Amino acid sequence: MRREPAIPFPHRTFLNNVPITYTSNEQIEVYRFSVPVTIGVPLLALFLQAFIPLRFPFFGMFDLPLLVVIFFAVARRNPVAGLLTGAVIGLVQDSLAGQPLGLYGIAKTVVGYGASSLGVKLDVENAGSRFLVTIFFYVVHEIVYFSVARGLVRLNLHWSWPHELWSALANAIVAVLLFTVLDRFKQRT
Amino acid sequence: MENIVGRYRNVTILVAILFAQVLGLAIQVKRSSENSSTRLIRVWTVATITPLEKGIVGLQSGIAGIWHNYFYLRGVRQENRDLKAEIEQLRLEQVRLKDDAEQARRLQLLLNFKEQFISRTVAAQVIGSSGTEQSRSVYIDKGVRDGIDKGMAVITADGVVGKVVQVFHSTAQVLLISDQLSGVGTILEDSRLQGVLRGTASGEVVLDKIMNDEEVQPGARVLTSGGDQIFPKGLLVGTVSKSSHGPESFLSIKIKPAANLGKLEEVLVITKNEEKQPSLAEDAAPVRAVDVLAQRLPSVPDKPKVDPVTGKPVDSSSSTKPGDSAKPANSSTGASTNQTSTITARSSSQPSTTTIKLPSATGSNRPGDSAPAAHKNGNGLASKNETSAKPSGAPPASTATTNPPSPAIKPTHSVPKPAKPQTDAQGTGDTIPAQDVPQ
What we know:
The complex is a heterodimer.
Chain A: E1 12-15, E2 18-22, E3 31-32, H1 35-55, H2 64-76, H3 79-97, H4 103-121, E4 122-123, H5 127-151, H6 161-182, E5 187-188
Antiparallel strand pairs in A: 1-2, 2-4, 3-5
Chain B: H1 2-7, H2 9-30, H3 39-71, H4 76-110, E1 115-129, E2 137-140, E3 153-155, E4 160-167, E5 172-176, E6 184-188, E7 194-199, E8 205-208, E9 221-224, E10 236-245, E11 251-257, E12 266-276, H5 289-296, E13 344-346, H6 367-375, E14 410-412
Antiparallel strand pairs in B: 1-2, 1-12, 2-5, 3-4, 3-12, 4-5, 6-7, 6-9, 7-8, 8-11, 9-10, 10-11, 13-14
Helix pairs in contact in B: 4-6
């Protein structure tokens, strides 16, 4: 008697025509990165984030350090590594911006943890899922940042949904391109 | 317990990290006046990032310099011609402004007025930004080793940029006037209304604390008032772009900054401000021998009468006090007549000669109306041989006998020919040291 396959592999669902793959723990690909990449890529992102807006002020709407946090967190699929990466990059970004240390630190810690936890459960290797994940975490990042800035530091920030959504969209497009480039630095464990 | 911690290890670490950061934030907010607790982290970050920025900016400047100085020279001749024409215009303007400045200095001196002077600046290049829309600041390539300190004003040729908030070894962070934490004491140029300029969360610049019952027109220029003790008085900040009644009792005024804050490249850091009384001797033309002599002589003899037929003096021993005899301005210059000393005044609007008696800072002759014509030589430029109207740098008390004239009135001096040949014997108006003048 012929045996039927237990569960179709991989099981795919379609959400807005974007394939998101459910994976089991056995099928998770965990990546690691070399030390130069681990240090150099975040530093390069911070440098570009500080340098490019001088020539192109509109670039201020992008958040390259956030995209790097999402990428590393998703690729490593380790929540502790993700939140630590987010915390360090966020704190460095805070110190460059001259604002109290912790505003970006807290926001990126949450994003790092969330992205790596999501990476455990979902396959975020394709462009569509990366696009959606980036939009989601950009909005989460901004909400956490604004909450902390207004609630703890009493900064008078102006929240605008259209602006935030447009920024999220722009960052998601950049993320898809950036992640494709950064994929080259992945090393299988 | 170990099982619980082990089971929720990730969440525990997350909570611990977040708690530590919230605690750190709370400490920083509590000590908002000092950043010493986080200084080390900032120094490390800046020391890591800014060298790269400096390198890129230096490379960029080098390439741009080679391109602009050696390859891209199209239209330079035409530009040179235009600039020369502009220089001619500016020279004429300078003559008028010089007279205005002299008049202003005299008035300030009379009023015992103290003025702020920018006595030292350091040019710096912008090498980086904060990288976030929430904090509007830039980094410059000058720091402690260049004499930069916290609280120093930063400007460009166009207008005010901001102030230094963090200083490192070779870099400094400048908070722009568009940041919501910044504040500049300002005054409207025409109406003299004072307000506080500050940034908003969206990066706009607004003028606050001007009452609703005042009227502010778009286009009005906004200057620094000097009240904040950071920016010297009178620097251009921007122009009013929109003015409307605010929700409270103050007007809602939007300002367009004069400096392009979005594309800063080079800036000036004001490292030293001085407050002093203006001196009449400042910026004066070199002191001429004839001026010194005319002041130091106890009584200035009048010019001898000349026989119109023979051209010789009629009575060389006769002398009168200055002012008693007036002579036409166009017949006497200090250089050509060197037998006697007379102090006369000449005005293009008043052809007749006037004896100088009192400071006429409030005189009817407006410097801008007639002075340039009086100063021009045949080329339409300021004449080098004109006699300075200044009392040769003497203290104000000494000007009691020879008070400074109206800016439009220029005295001419003629003094006895000195015995020593080195004391400007030819009357050419050459400068000699005051101590060499015979007493």
